Amino acid sequence: MVYSASSARTVLQGQGDGTMYLAKYVGYGFFGLIAMHIISRLRLDLIRRYTSVLLGASFVMLVMVKVPGLGVEVNGATRWLGFGPLQFQPSEIVKLALVLHVAAVIAERPKIARNIRTVVGPVLAVGGGAVLLIAAQPDLGTCLVICFTMAVLLVIAGLPMRQLGLMTGAGAVLVLLFAILEPYRRERLTSFLDPWAHAHDEGFQIVQGQIAIGSGGIFGNGLGQSIQKIFYVPEAHTDFILTIIGEELGLAGIVGLLSLYGIIAYAGLQTAKKAKGIYATLVAAGITSLILCQALLNVYAILGLAPLTGVPLPFISSGSTSLITLMVSMGVLLNVASGGHAHTLSAVPQRSKSARDRAAEDRHRGRRDGGARGAGDSRRRRAAS
Amino acid sequence: MHLIDRRIGFIFAVFLALLAIGATRAAWLGVVRADDLERAAAVQQEDDITIPAQRGSIKDANGIDLGVSEPAMDIAATPRLVNDATKVAAELAPIIDRDETKILSSLARRDTQFVYLGRGIPATRAERARKLGIPGLEFIPRYRREYPRDWMASQLLGYVGTDGNGLRGLEYTFDKQLAGTDGERRMVKDAMGEPLEIRDTKPVEPGKDVTLTLEADLQDQAEEVLAEVGEKWKPKGATAIVMDPHSGAILALANWPRVNANEPDKAPEEVNVNRAVGTNYEPGSTFKAFTVAAALEEGKVTPDTSFPIGSVLMYADRELRDSEDHGMGSMTVSEIVKYSSNIGAVKIARALGGAKPFDRWIHRFGFGKRTGVDLPGEERGQVLALEDYSGATMGNLPIGQGINVTPMQMMAAYAAIANGGILRAPHIVDKVGTTPTKKPAGKRILRESTAASVRKMLEGVTGEGGTASGAHIEGYTTAGKTGTAEKAINGKYSEEFYVASFVGFAPANNPKLLAAVIVDEPEGDIYGGQVAAPAWKQIVNFALGYKKIRPE
């Protein structure tokens, strides 16, 4: 509930530009609200059971993206699947599926997490496969989010720190290689170090973003008063939405937003601590880290603390698949939070199980054609109720 | 579970720390670097546009426009953005009246993002060009200077450069008053250059009108007469000035050859010079009036003082003769003026006391320095310093040779004789905006009576038997002096090149109009009485009627 209330306002903040996105949000948001609501009331076991189906489906979609004619290319990257206006990004679903998968695998035999060797098979093989597929799109940002989230999950599951350190080192080398091989990523990397020297080419986005934040000052220029959003800052409504928040609401707005993420972290990890059973704990912690990792990666890139990788800001950016996945994730997290409630539902006999199956199918279908329908609005509703 | 709880706490701490670092960095950008970044935002978001001020008009004494500014456009292009340069040039050239090949070569440039295709295109033409909807063209509003009367008073008015600055003539002298102050408009624009917000940061102050004492009709007449002189005598150049001798107000100032004020660059450089102030010439006999006035003022002679006049006067190594031997044996001062006797003038100067007092009187009449007329490019003439006088000098100066003056200096000095003895700087600007200009104060250099008796003597010149009897105007008394000066070429007086002039006023005893006609190197005849006096008569005759001066 806390997260719901917090994210609602920020979604509104982001919507400065045009009724098209707004309408999309409201429409998808309503849908997302229902999805979240249903999921939060499902039996947790059910989610666990269908994890493998979700994972399999998302892998299939990842491969489909690569099939000519099905994948949609934008800005040199093939990340989307879909026809005409209905598009969605399988990699966003993969994130959630992987978290659920890893949680399930580790919960089955918690001991495997205590040693790197035992973890390699079920966790790293599947995760690594997904990462490679996504890296091929290419989408470095999502790869990083997945890697970080996996790492956090392993830390929580009890992987020895030294082994984790080794793994991180290896991963870092891989990522660096990946970054250096592709010219546009190399440029992003170098421009990160001194964006103002590249203000007219590679550093353009960063510089424009920082100009927006700087001209907002402490309290901003007021809602809707951003000038930078009008074609100066590229991707102002998606990856760079934070800069517009900075310009319109100032430092106060940014710090407020970061605080909200802080609250999500607190509430999510509290939920994990209090959850019944290791599976629930790992699911809650995994989803929380997923959100935090993504948020931090986005914020750091925009503030010039990390190279640009192109991840949306959770709950705020208008990337639709990202939003609906996050909503579904929040539904799972809420489910864990109100754990007892879910268990009472699970006691219901056969008849209701088939109904639940139908509900799960609906969920899948919804995602497939709806993409990231508005998670944001759904939360707002929820907060109000 | 204990381990997991600890690990969860650890992860929470890491997340909090990372968020805190983010917040700190945001604070750095939003507070410490805010000024820098805001400036960077202003640089790219704001544009200051200059709004040109309309330049004031130049009007004649009756409010007729002589120079006006009309709305116009500069048309510029970003060559890179123009798709079909050949087609664009072909379409544009006839509309904006510019050379097609020039436009094409401008559009072919790849070394610049900005090139003018035409400057100061009249608004109507520019509008038609704009309607073509050619991409890559830019229309910058401005004003364009036009001279509705084309050829009239061009050298006097001057002209305005492509950037709108007065470069010559009155446009130059009164540039500050005419120009006004450009306004400034700040535009906040989006990244595509579309304006989001516009506000005027500096109001436009239009330029002030400059009203002249010039009378356009009189000017027209003077120019027409000079054109006839030009056709008849094929001189190098000619000047006519008409002035109110009492106030020093210039009523007409004509130069020949004429220049089309709208196309000053089509005339050779020397023709654009305002000869009335910008040329030096030896005044010749017109100068004798000052020799006589000085001797009279100092009481050395009276109009009736008689001097023996032979046919030749030896002066130093030179033989001095009159233009024709009058064979009179002796002449009074009046007769010396009337017949323009060189020998007589030299003898009067001798009676005045020679070089020293004569030099003083040259300066007293204002020669050797600028008159202070409100026109640019005024020359000061050349007056020999007293210590540089040679033995022959006093045989030259009294008859107006060996000294260089400007037409304007002659007008100012003659005005003193005409108005009763006051030397005053001539002026041509009456009002700037609605404020009358400060009129120059005069300085008395002659007694009324001296001026009156010089006028009386000059009246004789246009009378029966005088050197300019042809200048007499029916119904009026006229007075003046002819001049036929040899031009010094390379330090020697030529027998070939002369300056013929006539300076005079009417009515003779109560002058309302003073005029001078100066013809440089006429062909066919050389005498002021033949070349300049008839032109003078035509101009003054018209002017007397135009100014409604009653016949006597």
Automatic annotation (TrEMBL), chain B:
Residues 239-540 form the Penicillin-binding protein transpeptidase domain. It is found in: Membrane. Residues 50-197 form the Penicillin-binding protein dimerisation domain. Keywords: Membrane. The keyword 4Fe-4S does not apply. Its main location: membrane. InterPro entries: Beta-lactam/transpept, Beta-lactam/transpept-like, PBP_dimer, PBP_dimer_sf, PCN-bd_Tpept. This is Penicillin-binding protein 2. It comes from Solirubrobacter deserti.
